[in-house]
Amino acid sequence: MPLTRQMLARIQAFVHDNIAETISVEQLAVLVHMSASKFARVFKTATGNPPHRYVTLERVKLARTMLCEETIPLVDVGARAGFQTQQHFTDVFHRYTGVTPRACRLAHRNVGS
């Protein structure tokens, strides 16, 4: 059974609403009434990414937006985006964007001035 648009929308809304919390594959699977293993397979087929990577990418996207649009401290950006520690935030953000959160913020400020 593939994921329908409605199922994907439900998952996206849940991730968006709970981004600062721990989000498990099991929680997402319950939303669409599937086992965790079946959900992981059909989600990857539907989106091209496993559920964990999707959640991580959404966290990085939110963090990038906050770094560019807000002046809150970096540690708060990481926490609001759902990263457990500042070091984890920095490591993951750098892995996916090629720059550290601080460098991203500074680059955006330099472009904006």
Determine the CATH superfamily of the largest domain.
Homeodomain-like
Radius of gyration: 16 Å
Distance between the termini: 51 Å
SS summary, helix count: 7
Helix content: over 70%
Average pLDDT, rounded to a whole number, is 94
Protein name: AraC family transcriptional regulator
Keywords: DNA-binding, Transcription, Transcription regulation
What is the fold's blueprint, element by element?
Elements: H1 5-17, H2 25-31, H3 36-47, H4 51-69, H5 74-80, H6 86-97, H7 101-112
Verbal overview:
The mean pLDDT is 94. Helix 2 crosses helix 3 (36-47) and helix 4 (51-69) crosses helix 7 (101-112). This protein has seven helices and no strands. The protein has 113 residues and is mainly alpha-helical. The chain folds into two domains: 5-51; 55-112, Orthogonal Bundle (Arc Repressor Mutant, subunit A), CATH 1.10.10.
Give a short overview.
This is AraC family transcriptional regulator. With 113 residues, the protein is mainly alpha-helical.
Notable features of this structure?
mainly alpha, single chain, elongated, Arc Repressor Mutant, subunit A, about 0% strand, 2 domains, about 110 residues, 7 helices
